[in-house]
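Hi team,

As requested, here is the filled-out complex form for the manganese (II) ion run. I kept the field names the same as last time so the parser does not choke. Let me know if anything looks off before we queue the next batch.

— J.
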Amino acid sequence: MATPLEKWIDKIAGLTKPARVYWCDGSEEEARRLIEIGIKEEKIEGFPVFRDLNHKTYPNSYYHRSHPTDVARTEHLTYVCHRDKDTAGPNNNWMDPEEAKALMAKLSSGCMKGRTMYVLPYMMGHPQSPYAKACIQVTDITYVAVSMRIMTRMSRYAIAKIGQKDDFVKGIHSVGDFDPKKRFIMHFPDDSLVWSIGSGYGGNALLGKKCFSLRLASWLGKREGWLAEHMVVIGIEDPRGNTTYVTAALPSACGKTNLAMMESALPGYKIRTLGDDIAWLNVGPNGRLYAINPENGFFGVAPGTSMKTNPNMMRTLKKGTFFPTLFTNTAINEETNEPWWEGLDGERPNKLIDWQGNRFNPGSGNKAAHPNSRFTASISQCPTLSKEFENPMGVPISAMLFGGRRAHTIPLVTEARDWTQGVFIGARMGSETTAAAVHREGILRRDPMAMLPFCGYNMGDYFNHWLSIGRKLTHPPRIFSINWFRTDDKGRFLWPGFGDNIRVFKWIIDRVNNRVGARETPVGHLPRPEDLDLKGLDISKEDVERLFSIDKEEWGKEIADGEQFFAQFGDRMPKELIEELHGLKARLKGRW
Ligand code: GTP
Ligand code: SPV
Ligand code: MN
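And here is what came back:
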């Protein structure tokens, strides 16, 4: 008797008509074979799906060039198909599920003709974790199959775990013919199904990542009483030998990967990595919030990564294990066959092939690597990996941070008075846009909890859900706002960032452990000047003042913008957050 899983695979194969169906086991030997196929047989626009890189300096690494129209997430083609539009909310594109399925069936009919359909069984989360989920994705390109092996725990175990059940997490993926007009990323929360066609790009095609672990999982979390968040998870070891676990939500390309493995500029402090993109947060039996990272790898932004900014990522990329490391849409150094990107250490090599496959002309004003070019590497290769990474229960969280790119207004660090004010800070979050999604860069947009593109239901309901989680916690984490990106009038960053961010973390863990006081302001608690450890840092007193300055006029605009953003959620907006907004307004008007 066929299992529900086997029947489902037959049904998809009947629709998409692949030449063969291959069930992956996630082994090392299989990854090698898939890469061989990608090198020798599969092509995108005449270019092989994989190309060998220099294995002496970057062991087991391969290059992938995507279709030139397919280099970032496409939020305008991403839909969340709840039965009714209001459940999806103004923060999501919506289509009626039946209509969406009919459209996808039409686009998928025969879309795998002549190709292989790879069946990928994988777990999100440690297999022994009560919070883990067993998933299946099909795809018709080796790049996605190999990427999923790096990013998830892929093995036949997931098939055993699914057994006779039919409510497993399902993903259908085909690159189709890469036609942007036929490109859609559709989510069906009621069926635990993601259906994606026309794109091979990470967030659109590795369906365990944003599509399942955030959009569908946030909806599951709403129904089951937990949170799926766009967050880093780290442990901070202090000179006393204590470790404080912290999460931080930052929008795409705003520094999560950097933060996750930061090399501390302060002696005695060490960062321990648990995750750089996604956290699943559960209320533990002791009333504390526990975090797991459901992923097993990094899909990080290449440009700007160097021994200076992120040495531990450079070490991860060069470690070389039985997991391959992939580079997508970077440039290639023609002489050494190494990947290259803007911001990498050393001089720019003389002979570069740009991300579109052409000889790079430095006079052209173009970038050699695409600004959203990325690497894919196993988390097991990270030298700062926490020994708690494989703990099925996760780690207890003492502080949660919300941040973004804000040239003005938002101080370097602010502490919320309590959970409700913290949720208000997260809900009001804004950030200047980056190259991680297709849109104009550098525009300020509201991005609550860094989840605007990833929340799988109405954000008004999402804010309510956050408040309800707070009510279940007897020892809630403290909540902070951070901003590494404040600039002066000339656009120069006021804060050195990167390894020096530990100075902010030192204050945060001192606050969590009730070791320091704070300065009360209308916008929250700020560090007293003497409590921020700036030893050995070349920063002027004026710059420090500017990092913490609160400008009434700028805050007036900030509140008006936030108010307008909240208004679109109508009566789904929690009254607690509206009260916070009025409170903030009144405090700023008063004397302080
Ligand atoms: P996704 O993978 O897209 O979710 O993003 P991410 O948040 O992991 O992004 P990542 O860490 O790769 O961010 C990269 C960008 O942030 C690069 O342009 C870095 O130079 C910049 N960045 C990271 N940390 C800092 C910092 O402390 N200060 C400044 N000024 N820039 C930073
Ligand atoms: C992001 O854009 O936030 C990413 C990369 O982490 S992707 O997986 O493409 O979404
Ligand atoms: Mn991300």
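Two things worth flagging: The chain has a mean pLDDT of 97. The radius of gyration is 23 Å.

Thanks,
J.
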